Fold:
Amino acid sequence: MSETPSLPSPGTAVSDSAQAFIAYLDFFRDAAARKVTGLDEHAMRESILPSGWTPLEMISHLVHMERRWLVWGFLGEPVESPWGDHDDAGAWTTDRTHDELLAALTDGGERTSEIVTTHDLQDHAATGGRFADGDPIPTLLTILFHVTQEYARHVGHLDVMRELIDGTTGEE
Structure:
């Protein structure tokens, strides 16, 4: 049985925890982008899962999720439409194109890297954005664990979607 070539594991050469988070998040963003690249418009906007998520809605969710937790959440900065990945009824939605979403994913990653490299992992999130006085205020470390698990889980969803759409599996 031949071994499937794999991408280098993120963070294996990194001993700094903050840099390891950046490496893993970059890895997951790249994997998410790879999973939707090459799909036609219909496949990107059509759900084949019982959950109803489409590949583009999943990318939109990742873009909004990362911004909600790190820009609005950790920094406490105002962001436009922090919950813009779903409508008022809770249904996942996006009217953005593949290229717009992948650009937003990249931009979000750059902003996350900036945040992680300019703060200590034990710093607490600001209040006034996502978190109010009196709420439990998470540390950057806690937020990064949450964002990383969101990426890992949803890249797995994208992996299944892509396999069901056209048979592409693994790191392809």
In short: Residues 86 and 92 are 4 Å apart (CA to CA).
